[in-house]
Fold:
Amino acid sequence: MSKCDQCIVKQFNALKSLTKDELIRISNCKTAKHVKKGEIIFDEGDILNGVYCVRDGVCKLTKLSANGKDQVVKLNVKGDLIGQRSLIVEESTNLQATALTDMELCFIPKSEIIHDLKRNPEFSMDLMQQMAHDLRDADDIIVYMAQKSVKQRIAATLLYMEKQFGVNEKGAIAVALSREDYATIVGTATESAIRILSQFKKDGLISTEGKFIKIEDPHGLEIME
Structure:
């Protein structure tokens, strides 16, 4: 298991503000977790006694809506911290985290993080700024969902996925989501997502191989009306 002070992942989150001694202390009390694709990391309503740091892989955070369907709230990637809110408020989690790929996670106990929040102002500020950015992104998503058509939202999601996760050796988006996942991300029925993706394929905007999607015409997706 790698040491926190030597791990490049910390550069992508608030842990970069910790001193070497603080990172060594955290490294000695963290636990590593290997999660298989499709496995639930934590469920809605669970009590989180710490935070997860994503060393590798991708997971989705979802919220169960009133109609019984999961709404994808965010995708977490290498370098992200998951569960920061549990550090600030004594509440159960309101989201479910599910691995979209095989993942490597590090779990850091809450007591250790609280210790550093109280003693390291720079770390506290970085963590609060990250939470503020998450709130801003959530606001942007609400506005975007209200103003854009389902076609535009799916097109934007495909472009975001390619930018965020890159492509595999065949040029397809590296992370393969199900059609249901795309539907929950943009807030539509699975049947609608399937129909729109099929139309994109017919129009030459994308090509598919199983769950993998390759963007053939990014400009065409960008100007989608």
About this structure: The longest strand covers residues 50-56. The CA atoms of residues 42 and 78 lie 17 Å apart. The chain has eight helices and ten strands.
